[in-house]
Amino acid sequence: MQALLVIDVQNDFCPGGALAVEGGDAVVAPINALMSAYETVILTQDWHPAGHSSFASEHAGKSPFEMTEMDYGPQVLWPDHCVIGSKGARFHPDLDTDRADLVLRKGFRRAIDSYSAFFENDHATPTGLEGYLRERGITDLTLVGLATDFCVKFSALDAAKLGFGVTVKRDLCRAIDLEGSLAAALDEMATAGVQLTG
């Protein structure tokens, strides 16, 4: 069984948002159209408390997109984004959320970020998505959404590591591309056996 995993198509990652991905809103209509091809549709949602440790505003003298070291390893510092209950954290208004079998919120623990739909950034704390997929008998995943080089990449790599068949539709993703991060992400995913299409 196959599922469509739609990653973080939220206002803050679309044009005008706090962490806008160029062309982020362009994926919404084709993702909606793709949903009908899948029996199971899962949406992920970045869901940060105010003052999250990954926000540059929480680190004196640091600016967005600088790196810092957390207990769990290196961490990009982001603009404040997808704060719980805010307009920026909501799904893009045109996204067909009614089709979702599951909405998985991640990044809600203040002290740790969560790019992947499967694990937080310590690569050990599970979100529960694996168990849901196993219970549903789902073996193959198609990933779309935002952003290719962060939350899509980490979700795809974890899914492959867990033994799922994984396809990323590049044409239905958009990237942040920090200093070559898109090319590196595509290489990592291909090396891990992720099928890259579109």
Kindly describe this structure.
The chain has 198 residues and is α/β, with parallel strands linked by helices. The chain has helices at 28-35, 129-136, 148-161, 181-191, and strands at 2-7, 40-46, 67-70, 73-76, 102-106, 140-146, 165-174, 195-197. The strands form two sheets. The chain has a six-stranded parallel beta sheet with strand order 5-2-1-6-7-8, sandwiched between helices. Strand 1, helix 1 and strand 2 form a beta-alpha-beta unit. Helix 3 (148-161) runs parallel beside helix 4. It is globular and about 50 Å long.
Order of helices and strands: EHEEEEHEHEHE
Beta strand %: 15-25%
Integer average pLDDT: 97
The value of Rg in angstroms is 16 Å
Helix content: 10-25%
In DSSP terms, counting alpha (H) and pi (I) runs of 4 or more, how many helices? Answer: 4
Largest sheet: 6 strands, parallel
Strand order of the biggest β-sheet: 5-2-1-6-7-8
How far apart, in Å, are the first and last alpha carbons?
21 Å
Give the low-confidence spans: none
Structural class: alpha/beta
- Oligomer designation: single chain
Number of strands: 8
3D shape? globular
Keywords:
198 residues, two-stranded antiparallel ribbon, 4 helices, single chain, 6-stranded parallel beta sheet, globular, alpha/beta, 21% helix
